[in-house]
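Curious: why this fold?
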Amino acid sequence: MTNESVNNINFKDISVIVQGPIIENETIYCLKSIRKYLPGAEIILSTWKNSDTKGLDFDKLILNDDPSCTYSDKCKKIPFNLNRQIVSTQNGLKEVKRKYAFKLRSDLILTNNTFLEYFDKYQKRNNEFKLFNRKVLVATIFTRKYLFINHIKYYTPFSVSDFFIFGEREDLEKYLSSLNLMNEEDAYYFYNKEEDNPSYLSNARYSAEQYIPYNAFKKYFPQIKMNSSKDVTEENILQSEIAIVNNFIVLPTYIGGIYTKKYAYTKYKFIAEGYGLQGLYNEYVYQVDYKKYCDKDFKITAKESKIQELNLVEEYYKIVDHFVRFFRPTSSISKKIEELFFQIPKFSLIFFIKFIENSIKYRIKKLP
């Protein structure tokens, strides 16, 4: 590694699209971390008109008209910001002229540039649903096979994280540039319908993580069909697994050196290893699919989570899915509690899970 490149990728060949709102005490550190770990990279800040960008370090500024959000639940008024992400990302991509594009949320902070070391890994592929010239890096967080709601497993085909996306410019353009905004009919697709929405967080036809990859893949592969997030078949589950492993490298944030205060627990290896138990891809789950679909001779090096062997899966779900959300308020005290909790050694945490689960049981029932 030199001061100018990692893995033969020169930082000067990278354009970083920082998209989203200007977040106090976060966006400024996002931009500073890019300067620190990707010196020479171009920073394109794509945000909203009337945003206060004073004191921020960037090379190009795009001030977009806010398309506004839809609401994933008209009653609870939960904002669904997919269209905002599409507009700010697409307009940022229009300004990219360098070989590589790196789409980054405005609340993400780089802690190193290790993610670049993984761009050449897992490059064997099969010919099915091969969309990109080279595989694209995405995060494990919300790249998932399924989710659990009230202990029921719901498969979620074509769910790929949109937190950060790194790849060749042409590949990101192919993936993101032709997307249409989600219309109101799709945003409220499950609202007042007799059938239940498989996701308790949204009435939208597809989750944000499904909308982008599904629309990209169905454009180039018309045999891929999924009428809504509830339209799950053995065929589209298989198509999803092949499409994801054939086009993406799913990278845990703790490995890639990308941190978000919103999901602070993602920096802990123990939690990341357990993603597979929640239906999210972790390094082990990805390697299993890579061996299955892309490289039969690949030797799996990641380890399966030990939690499952101790029959503590249910408690683990509750800790990660509920305990963290309980302590997510932005107060400094809550953040300190969260940090201390996840610094408990792995073996100790396993034995504390049952105790913690019981102690917050009444709070769990009140969570959305």
Remarks:
- The longest helix spans residues 234-247.
- The chain has a mean pLDDT of 82.
- DSSP finds 13 helices and 15 strands in the chain.
